Amino acid sequence: MDHSFTQSYREEPVTADGRKKTLIAFEGLDGSGKETQSKLLVEHLKSLGIPHRHIAFPTYRPDWSGLVSLYLNGGFGEDPEAVSPFAASSFFAADRYCSFMLDWKKDYDDGKIIVSNRYTTANAVHQLSKLEEKDWDSFLDWLYDYEFCRLGLPAPNLTIYLCLEPSIAVKYIEKRSESGFRHTDIHEKSLDHLKKSYKAAMFSASKLGWVTIDCAAGGGMRERQDIFNEILQTAGDYLK
To answer: Which of the four, 137, 185, 194, 230, has the lowest number of CB atoms within 10 Å?
Structure first.
């Protein structure tokens, strides 16, 4: 891990009365269980009476994430690679900025634990994958400076990457789509994009110091409670 890169984003901010501000981000390929595991963590915090807030990105609010929806629904074309990673990253960043400033900033500033299903980290997976590997370092430099410095969004204290290989992830994406749970977007439709994003995620996890949890077992998914128990071991110090 490149500690010099992440150090400036790891200075833990505190509330007005000196309590630590905490943001825990869940990341992973589509179908890896981010929503399930983030909700399990929220239920755990609730059972302990710990003040918290659960957020998710994209927000899919038309007034905040209109460009995100246009992009994911194929408005710029069905090929994710055809849209500049810098443009697409800006779409998602604007959604986060609106959400933070208009919705959960006070909760964060007051010291509630923020649990996020996806965050800036998603750009470090899906948009990074569009670039040649020689440009990966510079893109991550730009991304973190853009969102955390120039836009002033809070950086996660902890990022949990739920690792699932594309060949397994696509099975769960298809199952979810067939059940009518959610429309499949242009990222989810492209196995090539998922493969590239998996490689980019492994790079980002190493460089940015994410905690990686292997979610696969026997060609399928581990039991969700088993995965969650490992998450609790990882996140314990951040939940106090």
So the answer is: 137
